[in-house]
Amino acid sequence: MTNLLTETTPIFRAVPRTTLKRHPDMNSKHKLTGLIAAPHTPMTQSGEVNLDRIEQQAELLANEGVAGVFIGGTTGECHSLSVDERLRLAERWSEVIDGSSLKLVVHVGCQSLVDSRELAKQAANLEKVVAIGSMAPSFFKPPRATEVAAWIADVASFAPDCPFYYYDIPSMTGLQLPMVEILQRSKDSIPSFAGLKLSNPDMPVLVECLAFAEGGLDVLFGCDEAFLFGYAAGVKGAVGSSYNIAAPLYLKIMDSFDHGDHRSARQAQTTSVAMVRLLASHGYLPASKYVMTLKGVDCGPVRLPLRNLDESAKRAIAEGMEKLGLIKSGVAVH
User: Which of 19, 269, 297, 325 lies in disulfide reach of 56, CB 3.0 to 4.6 Å?
Assistant: First the structure.
């Protein structure tokens, strides 16, 4: 394991260098590997984006072994934010991680092609951004892989030197299109096309995409509750929301599997499944945001139309996370 930060990193000086670890494959300049967290967008109690919290988020993620961040996606409440808020969010993340080895990927997907172009142009000009990604529009849905590839090509053309990842998340977009065809069309026609962020629990689709990607594309897996299955299938990089709150658990899965201790890997994955079910039972986004508060980084409430937690839900989450061994004993409910 190598250190994430340089000796002169100004914002992380309070973090002991010996605790900063990352997956060794992150030495590659051309691949996104290891754990890439999908951070929450922090908000004030009145519902405004709270850029002042991002430094604490970055410090926590670096300290727990995360290799990079995929900002402004589903966990970041992307479609509940204005374009201006997303521009300011990306700019602040780029500032905060300057001097560190955390890699910055910006989600630029919007319902409007014009808005996605604007986000892509900005990301291409931010020094710390190593890639961009976009889900397809989900109101006027592209009917075929052809239209998805055309959307990707248009958005990517506004950041031509920035690697582009298509973000497939059918549970949110409602799109069920042939992924290998999208990969083939995009690879053939888009010079900056780098691969796929696959938040799709269909394991045969993952296997098919991994087989196709052997020609040089990345497949970033995005189903935390099935992380072990993806890792065993050959996934080298994963983007997930629960890496914000339990990155050491997933690093344990990787380490156990790499050393042939499949029993320990399965046990850790079982804990992941229990954690995801616990949070989902209270509304995954507000629940996971609340766990960030338990870990010392107050990311505030979720924005309407999502529903925030009542006190009984907070107690149940705190007790459940403690039983799973994922937060310290006796953490107070905030």
Answer: 297
| 3-state SS assignment for residue 50 | coil
Name the token pair of 239: 């983007």
Q: For residue range 238-279, what is the model confidence (pLDDT) as tens digits?
A: 999 999 999 999 999 999 999 999 999 999 999 999 999 999
Question: Is residue 181 packed enough to be buried (19+ CB in 10 Å), middle (13-18) or exposed (0-12)?
Answer: middle
* Contact (CB, 8 A) for 134 and 169: no
Asked whether residue 190 carries a pLDDT value surpassing 50, the answer given is yes
Q: What is the largest CA-CA distance in the chain?
A: 55
Query: Hey, what are 170's tokens?
Result: 């059918």
- Give the residue from 248, 247, 200 showing the smallest Cα distance to 226: 200
Which residues are identified as catalytic? 167, 197
Q: SS3 for 222? A: coil
Angle, alpha carbons 167-268-34 (nearest 5°): 40
Structure tokens at 39: 């951070």
Q: Which domains does the chain have, with CATH numbers?
A: 17-261 (3.20.20.70)
| 141/30 Cα distance (integer angstroms) | 31
What whole-number distance in Å separates Cα of residue 49 and Cα of residue 43?
4
How far apart (Å, rounded) are the C-alpha atoms in residues 139 and 185? 23
Query: Per-residue pLDDT tens for 71-88?
Result: 999 999 999 999 999 999
Nearest-angstrom CA–CA distance, 67 and 271: 22
Spatial CB neighbours of 299, under 8 Å, sequence gap ≥ 6: 40, 41, 42, 43, 50, 53, 57, 289, 292, 293
**Per-residue tokens: 127:** 């020094």
Structure tokens at 315: 């107690």
Is residue 250 helix, strand or coil? helix
